[in-house]
Task: inverse folding
């Protein structure tokens, strides 16, 4: 029994060490913005997000190098199979991650989950002194591998959803500022960067960087903003850029379109806030009901035992 406990503790410690080395660090938002910017080509267009190299970047060593090379191998296989991973690339674009690093973590965690599932099933059967069916280790290993493979996706998706919510909130205020600048007889080419300079958050910094690349490359700022929305998965910005591009010659229509879109985004954000508040209220009610049921059981259990033993 003591040997089984020690073996389980060593297995858990080894798995914890693997997860600790593979788990990504969370850089600051401005660092992530810089990582997003360096993946763009000099002409203002984004470079292929699934491009991989044979050598690890910035000299990673140990597990980081293994993860990097494994990610490069998996990215190459997916590219040959025609699997675009569009949603994951959009999530990584707004969180500042790289596809190769995430795919490497997915592979390593899948292997760790497979070994953990098989090892724990055999260990539990041996400790309990019962025979383990032949398919049980395979089933538990497959479940562990699937959980490890999709765990990085869930983490990146949650972070990307939070970043997109922040970006949409800042985008609504930015559109109002652009509309006010245009109301003061400013041209759209002047109002866009002028309004972006009024904020210090990472969403406005990303917009400023996008507008700067548009000026350097000679592209329309609305086209560049639409490309930014497509790249980071913010459909509101993509639709806005494409819509404004059609009426860019009419300043009055541009201003009215910006005002209407800002109002729509504020109403949608208010509806989302009300929905989350309702979910929190329902959760509190369920918690109160469970506490009340537990209190009734706590009070009534001694009486019930006394009646049954009478």
Result:
């Amino acid at each position: 029994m003591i040997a089984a406990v020690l073996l389980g503790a060593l297995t858990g410690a080894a798995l914890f060490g693997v997860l600790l080395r593979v788990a990504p660090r969370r850089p600051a938002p401005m660092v992530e913005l810089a990582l997003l910017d360096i993946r763009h080509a000099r002409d203002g267009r984004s470079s292929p997000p699934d491009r991989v190299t044979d050598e690890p970047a910035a000299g990673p060593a140990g597990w980081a190098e293994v993860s990097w090379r494994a990610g490069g191998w998996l990215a190459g296989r997916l590219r040959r199979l025609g699997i675009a991973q569009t949603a994951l690339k959009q999530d990584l674009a707004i969180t500042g991650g790289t596809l190769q690093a995430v795919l490497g973590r997915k592979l390593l965690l899948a292997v760790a989950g497979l070994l953990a599932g098989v090892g724990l099933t055999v260990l539990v059967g041996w400790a309990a002194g019962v025979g383990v069916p032949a398919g049980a280790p395979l089933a538990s290993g497959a479940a562990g591998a699937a959980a490890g493979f999709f765990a990085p996706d869930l983490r990146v998706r949650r972070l990307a959803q939070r970043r997109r919510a922040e970006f949409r909130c800042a985008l609504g205020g930015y559109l109002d500022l652009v509309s006010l600048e245009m109301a003061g007889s400013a041209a759209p080419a002047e109002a866009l960067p002028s309004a972006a300079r009024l904020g210090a958050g990472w969403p406005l910094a990303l917009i400023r960087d996008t507008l700067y690349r548009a000026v350097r490359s000679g592209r329309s700022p609305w086209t560049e903003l639409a490309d930014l929305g497509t790249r980071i998965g913010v459909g509101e910005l993509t639709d806005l850029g494409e819509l404004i591009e059609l009426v860019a010659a009419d300043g009055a229509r541009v201003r009215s379109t910006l005002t209407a879109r800002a109002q729509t985004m504020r109403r949608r954000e208010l509806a989302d806030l009300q929905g989350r508040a309702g979910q929190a209220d329902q959760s509190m009610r369920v918690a109160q009901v469970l506490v009340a049921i537990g209190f009734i059981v706590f009070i009534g259990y001694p009486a019930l035992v006394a009646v049954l033993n009478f």
Notes: The radius of gyration is 27 Å. Residues 4 and 150 are 30 Å apart (CA to CA).
